[in-house]
């Protein structure tokens, strides 16, 4: 989010990776980058919050404990409503996804920090995790019946091959849209913030008459920041919600 | 929820039964069970109140767009891959691209319309959904219901 005063403001500079610690394992670059650091921060924050929630209870929760409990109840409600009560055994997965994405998004909004979820490789891995979980659980639970997901009932036999092909494409497109949605939202939001912050800086660097105008992009930046805060939460919610819906498909494939 | 053996702070050491953390925990559990029993089961797939704010409409639109484009991409990619394997260069790419477009439309329809099964469950024809519908929802969690 950092909009540094400089000769030229590059709005995508904030997404660049930098090596913090170079590690190579058999020709593979597994260096610790700033992205890795922020992932660790996010996980540490989530662990800290949840251990606080799990430990300190005498019945009356404090603020942080209430926050942790709200997160739990929120995700649990989502899993129960979207995928049914017995989908609660996937709750750990869904909850981890939610907390990780939410905290990454929120941490990314702190100026000068790095947004992990603005890289498609990260969101793609998360989405593919969900995708393969759905496929593996579906096949394990229902065997061949899982593929009934692609065969809607009540379709005349002569257009069935067409419908099945369409359903398969639709199914395969899920991880793509699932990952691109989160990635694109974070990327676009941070670029917009940076561009407006850049306007601000450029106007302040201009002549005295233009300095007063700088208040306009500044106000816009504040508004966008609030919007980004909403988007950060909303995208974590959407990602988790879709995960639940896909799990629902794995558990009840017969439409 | 672990019942911890901490001495209740701020109370005299000979704690009266209601201040005992164990008893408090038990009361809390009882209350939770009571709340759960009274809370109507939320219809599936619609976890939050469905207000149609600008933000929700916006994200709905973006979501639909994403679903549409993703299906076209995947369709095209499958066609291209099959062409590459079967040496039928432009044919299957075109075919699967078109199928991808259709799948995209499917996706959008699916994303924007309430699920058929939910509709049946929530409609007044089914007994359970019907009486749950008339009860005002207790504490709708999940803020802005923009997705389903």
What is the structural class of chain A?
A: mainly alpha
Total beta strand runs of chain B: 0
- Main-sheet strand order of chain A equals 1-4
Counting DSSP E segments of at least 2 residues, the number of strands of chain A comes to: 4
Report Rg of chain A. 22 Å
Task: Report the principal-axis shape of chain A.
Answer: globular
Termini gap of chain A: 43 Å
Biggest sheet architecture of chain B: none
> What's the alpha carbon Rg of chain B, rounded to whole Å?
26 Å
Beta-strand percentage range of chain B: under 5%
Please report the number of helical segments of chain B. 5
State mean pLDDT of chain A (0 to 100 scale). 87
Mean pLDDT of chain B: 67
Report the helical percentage of chain B. 55-70%
Largest interface: A-B, 38 and 47 residues
- In DSSP terms (H or I, runs of 4 or more residues), the helix count of chain A works out at 7
Structural class of chain B: mainly alpha
Summarize the amount of helix of chain A as a percent range.
55-70%
Q: Describe the largest sheet of chain A.
A: 2 strands, antiparallel
Estimate the global geometry of chain B from the Cα principal axes: elongated
Low-confidence stretches of chain B: 1-15, 44-52, 116-148
């Amino acid at each position: 989010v950092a909009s540094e005063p400089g000769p030229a403001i590059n709005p995508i500079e904030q997404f660049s990776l930098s090596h913090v610690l170079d590690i190579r394992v058999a020709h593979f670059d597994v260096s610790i980058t700033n992205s890795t650091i922020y992932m660790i921060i996010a996980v540490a924050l989530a662990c800290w919050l949840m251990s606080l929630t799990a430990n300190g209870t005498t019945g009356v929760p404090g603020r942080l404990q209430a926050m942790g409990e709200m997160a739990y109840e929120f995700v649990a409600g989502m899993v129960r409503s979207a995928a049914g009560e017995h989908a609660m055994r996937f709750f750990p997965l869904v909850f981890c996804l939610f907390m990780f994405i939410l905290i990454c998004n929120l941490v990314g909004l702190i100026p000068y920090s790095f947004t992990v979820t603005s890289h498609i490789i990260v969101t793609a891995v998360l989405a593919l995790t969900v995708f393969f979980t759905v496929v593996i659980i579906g096949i394990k639970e229902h065997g061949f019946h899982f593929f009934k997901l692609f065969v809607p009932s009540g379709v005349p036999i002569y257009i069935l091959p067409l419908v099945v092909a369409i359903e398969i494409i639709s199914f395969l497109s899920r991880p793509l849209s699932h990952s691109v949605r989160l990635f694109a939202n974070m990327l676009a939001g941070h670029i917009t913030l940076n561009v407006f912050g850049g306007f601000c800086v450029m106007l302040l660097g201009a002549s005295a008459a233009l300095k007063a105008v700088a208040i306009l992009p500044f106000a816009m930046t504040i508004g966008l920041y609030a919007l980004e805060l909403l988007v950060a939460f909303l995208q974590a919610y959407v990602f988790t919600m879709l995960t639940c819906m896909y799990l629902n498909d794995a558990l009840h494939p017969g439409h | 929820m672990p019942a911890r053996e901490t001495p209740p702070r701020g109370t005299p050491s000979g704690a009266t039964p209601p201040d005992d953390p164990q008893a408090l925990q038990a009361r809390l559990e009882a209350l939770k069970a009571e709340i759960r029993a009274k809370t109507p089961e939320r219809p599936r797939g619609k976890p939050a109140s469905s207000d149609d704010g600008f933000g929700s409409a916006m994200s709905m639109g973006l979501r639909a767009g994403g679903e549409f484009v993703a299906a076209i991409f995947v369709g095209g990619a499958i066609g291209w891959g099959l062409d590459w394997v079967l040496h039928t260069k432009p044919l299957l790419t075109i075919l699967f691209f078109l199928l991808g477009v259709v799948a995209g439309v499917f996706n959008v329809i699916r994303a924007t319309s309430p699920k058929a099964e939910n509709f049946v469950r929530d409609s007044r024809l089914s007994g359970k959904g019907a009486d749950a519908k008339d009860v005002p929802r207790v504490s709708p969690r999940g803020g802005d219901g923009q997705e389903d």
